[in-house]
Amino acid sequence: MKILAFAGSNSTTSINKELLNYATAQLASHDINVVDLNDYEMPIYSIERQASGFPQQAIDFHKEIKDADGLIISLAEHNGNFSVALKNILDWVSRIEMPYLKDKKILLLATSPGGYGGGNVLEVGLKTFVHFASGEVVASSTFPSFYDNFKEGNIVNEDLKVSIDEKIKTFENSLVAVEA
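Structure tokens predicted for NAD(P)H-dependent oxidoreductase (180 residues):
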């Protein structure tokens, strides 16, 4: 199965990228394409800019989605919402095709340094990816207090590790079910 994975952040030191790397390492037997939002930087979406055509980065990101059977997304929370980098990409992609996640299985994660673990952006993500983009979020989780619970590429809080590993397994099983 082909999996597209990305952190919803353009930060080079993103904790969501670290959590994403943990999740993808658990699925090493699959064909995983981890992309960096920095490779898809483009003008801020507007109807006037769209009239001039789609940026190649939007076309490329849309193709990455279309080629994948499933997606792993670890959302960064910026003032309770998506990062501007992710929102802009999704605005462009949604104009290429809506719904752009139809028939895609999704593992949706979010983390933050605080105790709510990106819970606000996870709620936004569930609404966006399910209701507007028609994806199927088969598992989702927040990961609170990142710096206390994640060290050197591993989850050190055993309860959180069990929970995240279960979500990853649920996602993997959903992909296997599609393949069968």
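The first helix runs from residue 15 to 25.
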